[in-house]
């Protein structure tokens, strides 16, 4: 197994660990700055999430640069991304930091585009990632980081950046999903 695929597997391995830190009450204590408080569980989950999210671009870069792109990597990489995002979004809903409707929209878009990609593969076509898809990923990661930080440091000045990034994530997620389907409508059979 090559280095890029190992990095992808590490991302998959980190998913349950991040989830455990978010959802299991380990009572590791809290970090408090004035009125701001964040549990060390959440800090550990945040750091692991950042590490996992940053490996997304790294594994692809290594695979392309070393010319070691494999079918296994093509399968595991998007799976790892979806597992990480879905797990953290569901945990945020459970923690009451994110509305369930937001998680449903984001997860539904991910699986709908994955389905479209599968149809494209069956037709012998490959759907490249669009710039909107890349923006979508960046804003979703930003949203999760802001939510896991409990809106720090913006809470000190009573600025709801958390709401701004949630709405931005929803809008870009929907737009990028629609963009994929419009640009690839020729792949969707209208009749048998």
UniProtKB/TrEMBL annotation:
PROSITE patterns: CDP_ALCOHOL_P_TRANSF. It is a multi-pass membrane protein. Pfam families: CDP-OH_P_transf. This is CDP-diacylglycerol--glycerol-3-phosphate 3-phosphatidyltransferase. Belongs to the CDP-alcohol phosphatidyltransferase class-I family. One of its GO terms (molecular function) is CDP-diacylglycerol-glycerol-3-phosphate 3-phosphatidyltransferase activity. It is found in: Membrane. Keywords: Lipid biosynthesis, Lipid metabolism, Membrane, Phospholipid biosynthesis, Phospholipid metabolism, Transferase, Transmembrane, Transmembrane helix. Its main location: membrane. The chain crosses the membrane at residues 12-33, 39-62, 83-107, 137-157, 164-182. It catalyses: a CDP-1,2-diacyl-sn-glycerol + sn-glycerol 3-phosphate = a 1,2-diacyl-sn-glycero-3-phospho-(1'-sn-glycero-3'-phosphate) + CMP + H(+). The lineage of its organism: Bacteria, Bacillati, Bacillota, Bacilli, Bacillales. InterPro entries: CDP-alcohol_PTase-I, CDP-OH_P_trans, CDP-OH_PTrfase_TM_dom, CDP_ALCOHOL_P_TRANSF_CS, Phosphatidylglycerol_P_synth. This protein catalyzes the committed step to the synthesis of the acidic phospholipids. Its EC number is 2.7.8.5. It comes from the Bacteria. The keyword Lipid biosynthesis applies. It is an enzyme of class 2 (transferase). Pathway: Phospholipid metabolism; phosphatidylglycerol biosynthesis; phosphatidylglycerol from CDP-diacylglycerol: step 1/2; Lipid metabolism. The keyword Transmembrane applies.
């Amino acid at each position: 197994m090559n280095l890029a695929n190992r990095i992808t597997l590490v991302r998959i391995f980190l998913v349950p660990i991040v989830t455990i830190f978010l959802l299991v009450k380990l009572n590791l204590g809290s970090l408090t700055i004035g009125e701001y408080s964040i549990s060390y569980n959440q800090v550990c989950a945040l750091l692991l999430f950042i590490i996992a999210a940053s490996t997304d671009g790294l594994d692809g870069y290594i695979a392309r640069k070393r010319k070691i792109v494999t079918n296994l990597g093509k399968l595991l990489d998007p799976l790892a991304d979806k597992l990480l995002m879905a797990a953290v979004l569901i945990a945020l809903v459970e923690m009451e930091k994110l509305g369930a409707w937001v998680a449903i929209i984001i997860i539904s878009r991910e699986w709908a585009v994955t389905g479209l990609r599968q149809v494209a593969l069956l037709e012998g076509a490959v759907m490249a990632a669009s710039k909107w898809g890349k923006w979508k990923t960046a804003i979703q990661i930003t949203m999760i980081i802001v939510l896991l930080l409990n809106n720090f440091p913006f809470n000190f000045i009573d600025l709801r950046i958390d709401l701004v990034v949630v709405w931005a994530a929803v809008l870009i997620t929907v737009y990028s999903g629609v963009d994929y389907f419009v640009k690839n409508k020729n792949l969707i059979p209208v009749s048998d």
